[in-house]
Amino acid sequence: MNLSRKLLGQHLFEKLMKMTFYGQFVAGEDQEAIKPLIQRNRAFGVGSVLDYSVEEDLTPEEAERKEMDSCTSASEKETGGATQREKQYLAHRGFGDRRDRVISARTYFYADETKCDQHMEAFLRCIEASGGSSEDSFSAIKLTALGRPQFLMQFSEVLMKWRKFFHQMAAEQGKAGLAVMETRLEVKKLCPPQLCPMGISGANTSLCRCSTVDLLDWNSLIDSRTKLSKLLLIPNMKTGQLEPLLSHFTEEEDLQMKRMLQRMDVLATRALELGVRLMVDAEQTYFQPAISRLTLEMQRKFNMEKAVIFNTFQCYLKEAYDNVTMDVELSRREGWHFGAKLVRGAYMEQEHARAAQIGYEDPLNPTYEETNEMYQRCLDYVLEEIKYSQKVKVMVASHNEDTVKFTIRRMAELGIHPSENKVYFGQLLGMCDQITFPLGQAGYPVYKYVPYGPVNEVLPYLSRRALENRGFMKRAKRERELLWNEFKRRLITGSLFCNPSH
């Protein structure tokens, strides 16, 4: 690409990209340019998930510097480190460039609050373009674009420590090894001394009146705190007392947290107004607990009438099934609509390397086969729930033909008709058309994940797409075989230049 730009000049280089690589994987430069492709796909029963895929073209050194600065708190910079923090939830210089060994996910690095506002405006335009393209469209957002990632990393650690404390107490009561939704703590054995200091008295007295609490009840202990930095309190596993994760927060850090939540609210409100489903993308495991929790809070607010906000579940995680079952159960208890996208995961190589090098337990399933089993287990659970509930919807985001066939078979067995619009399918633009278009023409709700943006600003994302792994190359080989067979069929039948509408 760099050589072509130098030899051809910018204008000819952009033309070449549009005729080849950019033209294959990107819909166009702006909302107007993408309309013909969206309308053409719509004619074949294929919808769109619009994704404004612009990235900064940073050097690895610039990305590392920005990441280390934006993921380190003021108190940690003053003291020169964070001795009480968990390794997994600290920024590490060797993994400062979050683009490294990541293929199909765009990456945002924090610069300042003004840049986050610009990202929000870009997402708003994307939502508005989705609303204008069709009545049943999606728009994708990433939370690392909307605020300082320090908050996501710290809040993720807090959530993890609360969950670990719950399971520690379950083990003390002889309940280790139970499924997460079957694990209930006996309150009389906990309160006092361990629960009351943590805020059950007062706003949470209803929990003390219960004989048992499960993890969903437990999670409610960190709700409804007035100052956002108060969210970042962790239970001391020995005393049961609440302690701050960091020694102090600056006023600016507290404001940055609030602004991130405000931007999320603006986007969700606009999506609701325009009838667009908002899909929150998953990210690295040291951000993901916070991303999932904040998405859950948006679902509680905006999914009361229909599924507007969709969370993303990565099935290469060992805890994927627990995450799905807990969120479904919470939606059932509180009466809101559950919306989910199931993916295998985009950060596998990076996550494996980070865990091994830094020295914490690998959060991912050890093999591809186990990830497939987890995907199928999560999917089957959600499909069973769909059979009995009008308030559950799922997108099967997969290029795996076996996964798609399994979903279609289970839908038939459970009596879930495609016209009910409860189960969606999704593939990336420019890939696996042999899956997408037959699904659309057979009446299944299916979508292309449609990146768009100016050529030069999308190239950083596209250049990493050029480095796809062997699994993608196998899929590409399969597609070439299908295309070659179709070419030969048309040649033999004399319909090489037939009207594509036929």
TrEMBL record:
InterPro entries the UniProt entry points to: FAD-linked_oxidoreductase-like, Proline_DH_dom, Proline_oxidase
Pathway membership: Amino-acid degradation; L-proline degradation into L-glutamate; L-glutamate from L-proline: step 1/2
Localization terms from the record: Mitochondrion matrix
Location of the Proline dehydrogenase domain: 38-474
UniProt feature, compositional bias: Basic and acidic residues: 62-89
Keywords assigned by UniProt, alphabetized: Acetylation, FAD, Flavoprotein, Mitochondrion, Oxidoreductase, Proline metabolism, Transit peptide
EC number: 1.5.5.2
Family: Belongs to the proline oxidase family.
Protein name: Proline dehydrogenase
